[in-house]
Amino acid sequence: MSPENPSFGSIRKQTGLTRRSWLARAGLGFGLLPIWALEQSKSKSLGAATPSPVGVTGETGPGKTRPGQSVGRAKSVIFLFMEGGPSHLDLLDPKPLLNKLSGQKMPESFVRPISPMGEGNSPLLGEKRKWARHGKSGLWMSDWIPNIATCADDIAVIRSCKGEGINHSSGVCQMNTGSIVGGRPSLGSWVSYGLGSEADDLPAFVVLQDGKGPVVNGPRNWSAGFMSAVHQGTRLESGREPIQNLFRPDGVTAARERSKLNLLGSLNTEIGRQYPSNTELDARIRGYELAFRMQAGAPDAVDLSRETRATHELYGTDRPETESFGRLCLLGRRLVERGVRFVQLYHGPGSRWDAHSGIEKNHTELCRAMDRPVAALLKDLKARGMLDETLVVWGGEFGRTPMSEKGDGRDHNPNGFSMFMAGGGIKGGMVHGETDELGLYAIRDKVHVHDLHATILYSLGLDNMKLVYNHGGRPERPTLNEGEPVRALFA
After folding, report:
1. pLDDT digit string (tens) for 469-489?
2. Which of 56, 128, 198, 416 has its CA 20 to 30 A from that of 119?
3. How far apart are CA 423 and CA 74, in angstroms?
4. Rounded to whole angstroms, how far apart are CA atoms 445 and 443?
5. Which region holds residue 55: left if phi is over 0, alpha if psi is between -120 and 50, else beta?
6. 44: number of CA atoms within 13 Å, CB side?
7. Which domains does the chain have, with CATH numbers?
């Protein structure tokens, strides 16, 4: 083209304008109308995400309280995630036959024709625990968890859990999202989407991590997946300042920050009108607003100095071995007390519960750090009248095998393992399901991960088959169109 009629490429080099931005500016933006129409047509033809949880009109974000689909006992969930896979055989599911056959090969009657677990290749490994019945219910628990044992009458142990994740990545992914393949929304995101939040100045879904090791899969575990990014989990730190950069810098007044946020909000809103399908932008806008509100509400929520000395002693924050996880459990109680819907606490990030060898040393140290804080959380919630409306879930991505590994450890076992629940309408002092005599396979009243998730949602008043998010031209559900709540767990 001649200099009098330059190409758009040369204009772009001179002005920095893209074709889309030029169309948006030229003629008051009328040039974008055809593109907008095409985008809307494309969105409809591809089945763009159109949120529609039952009983909810539109998607108002986690800052709005929404009614459940039915009357749920629980208002919040605290999921205590033992990353790496704690041994159900040494904690919650005693197997006398295992000790009797210790050192021998797996009996042929227990070996399945096709199994990834490698039964029969290694000798059985007995456990060295002392077991006792606890509470009026007589629930069996090992001497590794003496403090949790004092809460036996409030706990329902599920001994027949199962899933498909045979390694940590797939197992952690399934326990968080329902699928062994990444990309789906986490359970906390489904709760945020279905119920919103009761707190205006705190996120609906919060993640707390004990220790410095990286959590397997990282933020994918608390991702919103194909949902609006506003439903993803907010990770808080485990130190004395859980929320980084929360406070305003010296010399910056609230009015000045409010003015800055208003400007950012107007700019982001304008861009949002041009790109309505950009959920990350919408989440960022809401994130700015939430962060501003958190400057008033969050410092109080995370300030553990406001707790009494007796409370700190209860959680063990005054002891080196329990200080870290004790702080998180106490913080978890303070968060649900203020309306946070879903709190997930990771204990042993970096798969520290993964005892392929030296299980005695490994589990002894981890149980010592976890047992007292978990029991304190249950007792504290109960004393405050909050346990009935707070569902507490404890467990990892899978259990361990009865066969030995490296002589003194146990391998992964997704075919049969234990978890426990308390509060939220759960009937305490009971056992649900059963594994075989060696604890390798769930054999009665099996509870798949999908059933587990359906049960958690049921406690909150949500139906896993009616909680729907339309994505990619199909209705998506939190349990992949499977799973039923274990109603026998509820009083």
Report:
1. 999 889 999 999 999 999 999
2. 128
3. 8
4. 7
5. left
6. 5
7. 17-46 (no CATH), 57-246+296-489 (3.40.720.10)
